[in-house]
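Dear support,

I submitted the protein below through the web form. The confirmation email said the job was done, but the results page showed an empty box. After a refresh the structure appeared. I'm attaching both so you can tell me whether what I see now is the final result or a partial one.
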Amino acid sequence: MLKVHSFAFNPFSENTYIVYDEQGNCIIFDPGMYDAYEQKEFSTFINENLLKPQYLINTHCHIDHIMGNTWVSETYGLSLHAHALEKGILEMGRASANLYGLQYQESIPISHFIDTNDVIMLGKHRLEILFTPGHSPGSLSFYNRESNFAIVGDVLFKNSIGRTDLPGGDFETLISSIRTQLFTLADNTIVYNGHGPSTEIGTEKIYNPFLHG
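What the results page shows now:
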């Protein structure tokens, strides 16, 4: 079974995730660490649990999800995986940081473009890839059937959805992504999102005001 650990990083309280297996192999999703304190918190967890980072993945490339890309790459020797449609969003990182008055270490570029037909293997465990645009043009979600969870970035939140007023966002596309991709998963699938608490697919089907009915 895979385990999931989250950190709330940077001024946006972005959820950075580590997914790891029984042998300590792990994937780092959306590293948002902003300063040395957050970097230490992250590395301490890695070291104390004897984890071995295998992948660095961005679900999408908005500024709050990429702040730690370069630090993670340099610290653990990882290249960046993301969808090809996120390349332009990643390249807007400096402008986005300036807009919010934030410090920013330029992100490494995407080295590996993830296709929706790909499967990410972590040891013996499979992460299926779901194409879930709308919040961002190349947003991806990662689903592990065995452990019954999905890492979804900013697509779906507890009682809410991702904003669609940023470059590349589209409300109807986002709603379609949720209904045709995420809502096809089992109702008890845990949704690990980019901000705030986790939720479950069945809960959002019933109570999410953007999707109810």
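Response: this is the final, complete result; the empty box was a page-load delay. The chain has a mean pLDDT of 97.
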